[in-house]
Amino acid sequence: MERRAYKQALFAVRDDHAALDIVQDAMLKLAERYAMRPPGELPLLFQRILQNTIRDFYRRQKVRSLWTTPVSALFGSDSESESDPLETLEVEDDSKFSEPPAEQLERSQVLAFIEKALERLPARQRQAFLLRYWEELDVSAAAEIMGCSEGSVKTHCSRATRALAIMLKKQGITL
Amino acid sequence: MNQPEHELASRIVRHLDYGVEQIGPGTRSRLLSAREAALSHYREQPVAGLAWAGQAVARLTHGRFSSARQLIAISALVLALVGIAYWQNSAPTNELADIDTALLTGDLPVNAYLDKGFDTWLKRSSR
Predict the structure, then answer these.
(1) What digits encode the pLDDT tens for the residues A51-107?
(2) What residue of A is the nearest CA neighbor of B1?
(3) Which of A135, B18, B44, B103 has its CA 20 to 30 A from that of B87?
(4) Which domain holds residue A123?
(5) Which residue has the higher pLDDT, A8 or B3?
(6) Residue contact B9–A161, C-beta within 8 A
(7) What is the chain A residue with the closest CA to B5?
(8) Where does a domain end: A75, A91, A123?
(9) CA–CA distance, B81 with B39 (Å, rounded to integer)
(10) Are residues A60 and A126 in the same domain?
(11) A60, A75, A90 — which closes off a domain?
(12) pTM
């Protein structure tokens, strides 16, 4: 449970330490506030807490960037040299990776591409996609966690899947 | 959601599951310790939860009893006020009814009470 949660947080915040902190916070909150709830309710509650904790992280980052952006503009930053991570993620078929099996390597590369593609998705689309397909929640549960209508969840899911399909196709990856 | 989209989503998810298996040992151990910390907190919770529940129930019942007491007191006060009001209204009526009965059933004619001379004679004779 916590590993998938960590990955979810990582796709959202793109920072190992922050993702670990988010998962830790979410698990503690679950234990502190909902210990008396029936065990069947806990996975859904955990998802809700996790998503809220990720949202809180975004809010804090927004506030922080309000202060750091003017400062970095004053003193200059190297953000312009930042490149699109997807462009650097070429699927290599080089024979120098002879130690691990070729299939395993390819799989890792596809995985890395998918993970980066997920990171690039709009937050709501990624959230809907992961809740529906990875966490296997039904539309109503996902809608409750996301605080939106069931129709919105379906739309977000559909858009996310289409966007991922386009990105994969561009890279010539077939799953 | 149409079928091809659903199938693609399922394939992507399979890769994501593979990604979960690939998480490094450092991250795994940190996640495990976070889980253990949360679980130890979870195990401590029932006692604290019961204590809290006990307090909450006590507070709730105390509140209920105190409000019941207040309700009884207010009801008694309202009843008393209604009783007093009823008694005040009914007492003069009874007095008047008694006088009327005495006047009508007495041997003395009613006009005698209106006569000032009779009143003076009554006061003198009572002394």
Answers:
(1) 999 999 988 888 877 777 666 666 654 444 445 555 555 444 444 445 567 777 888
(2) A158
(3) B103
(4) 99-175
(5) A8
(6) yes
(7) A161
(8) A75
(9) 61
(10) no
(11) A75
(12) 0.59
Report yes or no on A43 lying in a domain: yes
Q: Does A88 fall in a domain?
A: no
Q: What is the DSSP string of A143-159?
A: HHHHTS-HHHHHHHHHH
Where in chain B are the domains? Answer: 3-126
The whole-angstrom separation of Cα B85 and Cα A2 is 73
Domains held by chain A: number: 2
Is A81 part of a structural domain of the chain?
no
What b/e sequence results for A63-79 when a residue is b if at least 16 CB atoms lie within 10 Å of its CB, and e otherwise? eeeeeeeeeeeeeeeee
In B, which residues are within 8 Å of A24 by CB distance? 34, 37-38
Specify the pLDDT at position B60: 46
Contact B46 A35 (CB under 8 A): yes
Same-domain status, A64 and A3: yes
Report yes or no: A58 at the B interface, CB cutoff 8 Å: no
Question: Under an 8 A CB cutoff, do A28 and B28 touch?
Answer: no
Chain B contact for A86, CB < 8 A? no
- Structure ipTM: 0.73
Does residue A62 share a domain with residue A13? Answer: yes
The secondary structure of residue A142, as a DSSP letter, is H
Across the A:B interface, residue pairs with CB atoms under 8 Å apart total: 93
Model pLDDT for residues A32-49, shown as the tens digit of each residue: 888 888 888 888 899 999
Q: How far is CA A20 from CA A56, A125, A135, in A?
A: 14, 22, 19
